[in-house]
Amino acid sequence: MQPPIFLKINFSWFFCFLLILLIFPISYAAEENFELKVVKGDKLINICQKYLEDPQKWKEVAAINKLKNPDLIYPGQKLIIPVHLLKGTPWDARVSFIKGEVLIQEKGKEEWIGLNLNDLVKQGSTIKTGDKSAVEITFEDGASFYLRSNTTLGLTTAQKKGDFYTARKLFLQKGNTILRSVPPSGARSRSEVVTQNAVAGVRGTDFRASVDQDETTRMEVLHGAIELEAKKQKVEVKEGEGSLVKKGEPPLKPRKLLPAPAPVDLELLYKSMPISIKFTSVEKAVFYRIMLARDKEIKDIVYEKVIKPAEKFLLTGIEDGLYYLQSQSIDDLGIEGFPSPPVELRIRLNPLPPYIESPTRDAELKKKSVTFKWLKVADAVKYHLQIATESEFKTLIIDKKDIKDTEFIAENLEFRRYWFRLRSIAADGYAGLWSDPLGFTILPPPPAPPLEKPAVGKDEITIRWRDLGKGIHYEFQMAKDGDFQQILHEQKVEKPEITLPKPKEIGTYYVRTKAIDPDGYAGDFSAPQSFEIKPPPPPIPVLNKPEVRWQEVYISWPDLGKDIRYHFQLSEDPEFQELLFEKKLDKPEVVFPKPTQIGEYYVRAKAIDAAGRAGDYSLPQTFKLTHGIPYVPVGVLILLGLLILVL
Fold first, then answer.
1. What domains can be seen in the chain, in order of their start residue?
2. pLDDT tens per residue, range 376-391
3. pTM above the 0.85 mark?
4. Which of 57, 198, 225, 596 can pair with 245 through a Cys bridge, CB separation 3.0 to 4.6 Å?
């Protein structure tokens, strides 16, 4: 065995050594220690020069190891050195996540520069995040700290001491940070989080730390435990507990963290905004913090809000995608509880419903052909249009699913009210949300005005129809055929009647009209009415003066032409109310028995053509009988006749 090494020790040094021996075993009893085995040639002073940050601390090492003679150590002897005395090597961390604007100020420099993903963060640096920003700094051993928006934190110390120990010290000036440690696995580590009014000593612990505007410090332990110290008073905050330190006060007694509220009735897919989410009630919670992030670790937070327990969490303006929802309760002291497990939230609004240009809402259309127009949607490859007779779209009259243009024409719609809606379809076949239903009405045109029977005069013809009201005007047509292919006259009139010159050509004519409203919307034509232009009747016969004979009367008149027949009448009154004799004749003359009564008699005649058209009666002619015809028996007349023959 190597003989001991002996050095002279004066009395003053020995006195100091005894003093250290009495003090340090108590001070460092709870400290982490590094154990070293002495080998041949080792001296305490050399060991301290090699391993200690300050070699002059060899006296503390001697006191802790209860060395009566610090100059006398042996090979194989075990020495205990407090880790905090060990020489440390700066241990850089790296940016493992970043969002938004994050700045860093390195030790000894005044300027702030932008921080980027994978940048190194050195001991002595200060980091600050802006609005809607976040950053995660990760060490080689897996430990990390995550800074939320508007947080300033200094990495005061980050050292690796030997091969067995790491030490980190963070100074949280303001904001919120989450520290995640890794379970011990051989190497030992110790971290401190310092604020303006508190110090938290941690080892293998996950916890949240925050400093608000009033410089109140809050600590919430999720795993492990911390020792929280302020105003020379310490409390142990265990897993599932939280505490706070107000400025100038000792730590508050730890209290249990509240459980997280759970979302109620989440949908598998949200297709429209706003999204409204309700949460379960948590006893003693006064607020909930709700976070929506793009990742399960809830680092990339896209929206965050603190709400009251009875309040709904509303989301607007969120892009399509898969998100994760996390919630945690907040008690009356502002201590936040356990985070809920992240819950998937799927949002797909796109392709959005098209912006509809026409028809507009509650449009009143005056034609049975309707053109639907809309604006192109960027990520739509086709569109789906539905037209129904009711707003629930149960009775569809058009269901067109593959419209590739931004226009569609619906033909031959009936006069009534309709509803329509439209949605976009993406290239993957996903159909977006329907547009809001829009109603429109196809108005019937003015009714066809029924025509009265045309009034045919001597030189004019007048057609009248029903007046359809103020502002209505009419379109009139007259044709030679019932299909109105040969239109002879067409005219727009303001009043429900028209007078035209009487057609000269003999035949049947057809007339019809339709109504037009003030906007020019025309109805159907009325059912045709017809009138006939007949040939002129035969002229009126001019009777010659009647020739009164002994037993008969003879009357004649000029012949009116071939195929003309006549109708003759005899009466005792000029009105011809009672006829004494009436006869149809083929010639312009008539012989009829002489009336037996004395008095004045009236005769007249009219012509009838071959078509049976009769002209007007002639002016009456008259003749008078002043005596009657004497009665002679037939036998007497025969005898008189024979006598005349004999003579």
1. 11-86 (3.10.350.10), 89-256 (2.60.120.1440), 263-347 (2.60.40.10), 356-442 (2.60.40.10), 455-533 (2.60.40.10), 535-647 (2.60.40.10)
2. 999 999 999 999 999 9
3. no
4. 198
